[in-house]
């Protein structure tokens, strides 16, 4: 039996044979063939992730075997203490340092590292399968990034209180990690590699996305994956004229640029970012600053890899035999030249597929391809024959006696055999080679264009009658259907992130790429990572041209459905989305367009002079066979968004400068073609779009609109029929409605509810709500009541108010007093023909204080202004912004506001024969000034 005396490898560990069995030990002995009782010493070589020179250590393993029982008696394994040491390095980045640590977490992973910036910590691991997967035309790399809510001291808002599926912004960071690492992987390495990254701590100031790129690059460099060079990533911001590397979140709020850059010590692998119409020269300067920072990080990483990295699995790289390239070119070379001249995508794709099957068939018939589907016979295979021949003993001259026959076996040279996958991989590479050669040598692309030529463009708007805005944009064989929808704040997209405050997006673009757009049948489900990434690129491209929320308070959603695709579908979404916004009546700042640029880097290989060849408006085949995919969106003045992916070891700044300048010329051409849109954008709100009215009230009146538990605002919505009413603490009220009638009704209710009464205002045709012995309570506006004392009801003497007035009667009143509690005192006598103008000042003021249950207590006077002439406004609405230093009454200065929905009139009679009014109005009297509307429509 075996037992371990030391569970942690801090020194020699010995396994002893136990005399008594134990339930924690093996129940059967380890049997070996009968051997003499000796002690065998072997040295076994293990790879340690944190070893010294050449990243390799030797572990001494001593074993002894009992020959009588064949049982292993003891094993002595000595593990160096250095294998568990923690290695760390501080790397200067911008105006501070980042801390890189390895060897203290995730020691069983192929590579693991933590990167710290401030109090933000990102932990990344790399693991790979022991056995390679089936060969394919891409590196089997998967990336997963997750932001733990515990990193910011929070928990998830979901029902399960744990992190769920990957959120959209996490997917975007996964793409940022994947895209710069993939070009550094050698062809022929098929061990599936997985990168996992977690945000363990977040301080709210230092963003984790650039750290995640750097951490993944370092972890891969430490692992056995045979990547070419270390990769690092940084963010660059532009504040004023100063470029900042890895700016804080506070600094990014004032930045004109958000650039994410990744690369090696000598080349740029990926850039992505957004700007506020940034000129090309400023972008190039930012790239240069970011490249210098990446170079400094990579140099430090290389030193760390030499110290504690693992040996690379160079032997695992399996490339197709070189002879196969010659066979494929001989069979398909001439035919490929003809097929690549087919202009349309689908016929060209079918012709290439047919040619590939032909090549595979010919190689199979000639015995060059292994028929893996054929059943294996009992006869010896060629490989087995070769293996037997290798085991034959070869007689060397001089080692035989004279007279013996010396025969030297001559090994047979078998016909080379290739797998079907190798043939398909080689055929694809040969096709790419012929395509690049055609572009460089002939100066013509597959569709007959020159390198700088743009495909034909046509577009049309208002093609969907019930949509708020729609546009169909077509460029060559790429087509995007863009639809814009306007809505209220409830349509805003909620974002759950590490910051405690909830974030809402008032503009978002959703991109979909159905399989039918490329003529295929496929699965339809949740949006892929590619769809999320392309949608975000188009969204950030258009976000810069949108109006401010105060100028256009709509939530805007744009859907871009790709109906045809042959390259650059994300940039077609930018162009189509811009037209759809104009068609929906969104007052955008200007029109923008997007274009995708390609590259053939090594032109000397294909007969050129060695100068890189930049391609404008690339197609799908040029993207797959080329060396770069550089998407740029903006107008003639600057860039709003950009994204670059490459398939080579990297490009330099001069190449990027040439690509940016050529992209600017392409954008100008596309913008000119968009101006020819037929039918053109409507540039006005659709009759099906919701109406929005914005009004301002005093902040202390907001609670009157909301009510207890939101009851009041719900009743206003039900009463008026509007869609929604949003209120803000600063006094802004937004009313969303589908028709003008409901909008005006809710506007009148809110105006009356939040009105600020002023001494001297006259209110016509007001309903009596309550009759008490000392007077009546009159509603001057919905929810606003005041006391008209019995002494103010008539010019003569009244014994009881109920003798003349009853609940439901309508009378005209004048506001004569507002006490310190905000309670209103009204007078009907002041409006009677024989009333004394000064009688209101002689009334008993103490009678108002007798009321303890007045409905609307706590009202305050607001300084307002009134015009000298009469103005018709809705009944019961408050006069706009009045301002007066005193509360004096000037009856000669008054204006009349028209009632929107007059109440049911009831006759009013009294002893003094009060005159009945069939068309009551509300008039307001003030001291001086002018009148302005409470709110204005968007």
Description:
By secondary structure, the chain is α+β, with helices and mostly antiparallel strands. Helices cover 23% and strands 26% of the residues. It contains 15 helices and 37 strands. The strands form eight sheets. An eight-stranded antiparallel sheet has the order 13-12-14-15-26-25-23-24, with helices on both faces. It has a six-stranded mixed sheet with strand order 6-7-8-9-11-10. A hairpin with a 4-residue loop joins strand 28 and strand 29. Helix 14 packs antiparallel against helix 15. The protein is elongated, with a radius of gyration of 41 Å. The termini are far apart.
Q: Provide the β-strand percentage band.
A: 25-35%
Number of helices: 15
Helical coverage, percent range: 10-25%
**Rg:** 41 Å
Distance between the termini: 85 Å
Mean pLDDT: 78
- List the uncertain runs: 1-83, 376-405, 836-938
SSE layout and pairings?
Layout: E1 3-4, E2 13-16, E3 39-46, E4 57-66, E5 71-78, E6 87-93, E7 96-102, E8 111-117, E9 120-128, E10 141-147, H1 168-181, E11 193-201, H2 209-222, E12 232-239, E13 242-245, H3 249-252, E14 257-263, E15 268-278, H4 280-308, H5 322-339, H6 345-365, H7 382-391, H8 420-442, E16 457-461, E17 469-475, E18 478-487, E19 493-495, E20 503-505, E21 507-512, H9 529-543, E22 555-564, H10 569-583, E23 593-600, E24 613-616, H11 620-625, E25 628-634, E26 639-646, H12 653-674, E27 691-696, H13 702-706, H14 711-720, E28 724-727, E29 732-737, H15 740-753, E30 762-772, E31 775-781, E32 784-789, E33 810-818, E34 824-827, E35 894-897, E36 922-925, E37 935-937
Parallel strand pairs: 10-11, 21-22, 32-34
Antiparallel strand pairs: 1-2, 2-5, 3-4, 4-5, 6-7, 7-8, 8-9, 9-11, 12-13, 12-14, 14-15, 15-26, 16-17, 17-18, 18-22, 19-20, 23-24, 23-25, 25-26, 27-29, 27-37, 28-29, 30-31, 30-33, 31-32, 33-34, 35-36
């Amino acid at each position: 039996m075996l037992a371990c005396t030391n569970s942690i490898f801090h020194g020699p560990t010995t396994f002893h044979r136990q005399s008594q069995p134990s339930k924690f030990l093996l129940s059967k002995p380890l049997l070996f063939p009968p051997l003499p009782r000796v002690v065998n010493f072997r040295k076994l070589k293990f790879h340690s992730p944190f070893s010294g020179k050449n990243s390799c250590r030797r572990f001494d393993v001593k074993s002894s075997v009992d020959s009588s029982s064949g049982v292993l008696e003891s094993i002595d394994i000595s593990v160096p203490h250095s294998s568990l040491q923690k290695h760390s390095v501080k790397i200067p980045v911008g105006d501070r340092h980042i801390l890189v640590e390895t060897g203290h977490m995730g020691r069983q992973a192929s590579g693991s590292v933590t990167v710290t910036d401030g109090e933000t910590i990102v932990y990344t691991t790399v693991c790979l399968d022991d056995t390679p997967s089936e060969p394919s035309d891409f590196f089997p790399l998967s990336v997963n990034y997750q932001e733990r809510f515990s990193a910011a001291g929070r928990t998830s808002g979901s029902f399960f209180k744990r992190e769920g599926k990957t959120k959209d912004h996490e997917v975007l960071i996964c793409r940022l990690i994947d895209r710069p690492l993939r070009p550094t992987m050698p062809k022929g390495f098929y061990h599936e590699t997985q990168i996992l990254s977690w945000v363990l701590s977040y301080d709210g100031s230092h963003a984790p996305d650039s750290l995640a790129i750097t951490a993944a690059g370092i972890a891969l460099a430490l692992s056995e994956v045979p990547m070419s060079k270390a990769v690092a990533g940084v963010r660059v911001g532009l504040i004023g004229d100063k470029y900042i590397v890895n700016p804080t979140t506070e600094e990014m709020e004032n930045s004109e640029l958000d650039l994410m850059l990744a690369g090696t010590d000598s080349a740029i692998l990926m850039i992505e970012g957004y700007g506020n119409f940034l000129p090309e020269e400023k972008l190039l300067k930012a790239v240069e600053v970011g490249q210098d920072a990446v170079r400094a990080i990579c140099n430090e990483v290389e030193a760390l890899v030499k110290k504690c990295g693992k040996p690379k699995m160079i032997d695992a790289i399996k490339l197709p035999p070189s002879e196969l390239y010659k066979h494929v070119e001989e069979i398909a070379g001439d035919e490929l030249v003809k097929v690549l001249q087919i202009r349309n995508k689908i016929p060209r794709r079918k012709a290439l597929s047919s040619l590939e099957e032909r090549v595979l068939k010919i190689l199979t018939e000639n015995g060059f391809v292994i028929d893996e589907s054929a059943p294996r016979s009992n006869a010896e295979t060629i490989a087995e024959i070769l293996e037997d021949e290798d085991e034959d003993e070869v007689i060397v001259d001089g080692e035989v006696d004279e007279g013996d026959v010396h025969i030297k076996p001559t090994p047979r040279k078998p016909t080379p055999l290739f797998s079907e996958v190798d043939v398909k991989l080689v055929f694809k590479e040969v096709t790419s080679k012929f395509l690049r050669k055609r572009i460089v040598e002939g100066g013509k692309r597959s569709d007959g264009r020159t390198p700088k030529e743009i495909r034909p463009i046509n577009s049309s708007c208002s093609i969907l009658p019930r949509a708020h805005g729609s546009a169909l944009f077509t460029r060559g064989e790429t087509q995007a259907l863009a639809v814009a929808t306007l809505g209220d704040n409830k349509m805003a997209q909620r974002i759950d992130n590490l910051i405690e405050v909830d974030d809402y997006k008032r503009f978002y673009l959703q991109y979909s790429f159905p399989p039918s757009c490329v003529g295929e049948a496929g699965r339809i489900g949740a949006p892929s990572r590619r769809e999320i990434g392309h949608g975000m690129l188009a969204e950030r491209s258009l976000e810069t041209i949108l109006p401010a929320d105060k100028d256009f308070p709509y939530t805007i959603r744009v859907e871009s459905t790709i109906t045809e695709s042959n390259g650059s579908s994300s940039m077609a979404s930018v162009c189509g989305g811009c037209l759809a916004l104009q068609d929906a009546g969104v007052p955008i700042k200007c029109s923008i367009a997007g274009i995708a640029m390609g590259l053939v880097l090594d032109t000397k290989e294909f007969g050129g002079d060695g100068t890189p060849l930049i391609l404008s408006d690339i197609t799908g085949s040029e993207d797959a066979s080329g060396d770069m995919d550089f998407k740029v969106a903006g107008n003639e003045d600057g860039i709003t968004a950009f994204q670059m992916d490459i398939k080579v070891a990297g490009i330099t700044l001069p190449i990027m400068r040439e690509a940016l300048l050529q992209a600017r010329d392409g954008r100008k051409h596309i913008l000119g073609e968009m101006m020819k849109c037929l039918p053109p954008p409507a540039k006005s709100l659709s009759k099906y779009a919701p109406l929005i009215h914005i009004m301002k009230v005093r902040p202390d009146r907001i609670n009157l609109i909301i009510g207890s538990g939101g009851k009041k605002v719900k009743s206003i919505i039900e009463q008026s029929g509007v869609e929604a009413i949003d209120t803000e603490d600063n006094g802004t009220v937004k009313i969303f409605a589908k028709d003008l009638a409901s909008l005006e009704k809710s506007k009148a209710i809110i105006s009356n509810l939040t009105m600020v009464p002023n001494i001297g205002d006259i209110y016509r045709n007001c309903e009596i709500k309550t009759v008490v012995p000392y007077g009546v309570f009159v509603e001057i506006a919905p929810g606003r009541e005041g006391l008209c004392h019995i002494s103010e009801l008539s010019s003569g003497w009244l014994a009881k108010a109920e003798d003349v007035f009853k609940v439901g009667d309508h009378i005209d009143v004048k506001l004569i007093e507002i006490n310190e509690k905000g309670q209103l005192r009204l007078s009907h006598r002041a409006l009677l023909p024989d009333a004394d103008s000064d009688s209101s000042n002689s009334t008993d003021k103490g009678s108002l204080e007798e009321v303890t249950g007045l409905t609307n207590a706590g009202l305050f006077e607001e300084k307002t202004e009134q015009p000298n002439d009469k103005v018709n406004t809705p009944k019961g609405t408050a006069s706009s912004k009045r301002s007066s230093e005193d509360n004096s009454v000037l009856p000669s200065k008054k204006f009349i506001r028209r009632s929107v929905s007059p109440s049911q009139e009831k006759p009013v009679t009294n002893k003094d024969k009060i005159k009945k009014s069939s068309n009551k109005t509300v008039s307001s009297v003030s001291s001086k000034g002018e009148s302005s509307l409470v709110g204005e429509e968007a």
